[in-house]
# Entry
Amino acid sequence: MRQELDEVDLAIIRALQKDARASFAAIARSCNVSVDTISKRFRKIEEKGVVRGTTVLLDPKGFNIDCVASFGIKADFSHVEDIMVALRKMPEIVFSTPTMGCHSIYALAIVRNVTRLSQLKEVIKAHPMVREISASIWVHDILLCPENFDLPSAKGEK
# Structure
C-alpha cells in the first residue's frame, strides 16, 4: 500500500538520502518550515514504516576486511525460509533476501579473506536444503548511492 507523502515529507527523505546526518534545522530552512515540523514529520514517516532507520556506512577495508562477496543460492521454494533462518545466524552474512529468478536467495557476506569466503561457502553448501550455491567477489570499492532511489512526487508522478 502506497503511503501518502507530501512535498515536505519527500524533501525530508531526499535530504536524509544524501546525508543521513543532515540536521533537521537545515532541512527546515530548505523547506521554509519549523524544526519542530520536520521533527514531527520525520517521526510520522518512521511510524508509517516508510523510513526504517538511519545508519552509518562502514568501509570494510577500515577493519582490515579484504573480501566482500555475494552468494546466489538455489533451493526449493518450500525451504527458503529455513535457509534464511540459518543465514541469519552466520555473523559474516550482512544481508539476505528471497529472490525470484536464477536464485532462490541472494546473500551478501563480508569476510576477512578469500580463504574464509571459501569456508563460508562450504558451510552454506552443506545445508541439507541448499541445492546449489555460487559466489561472486566484489573487486572494487563499494559504491552505495541511496540518493539514486528515485522518489515519486507528492502528486504520484515520478
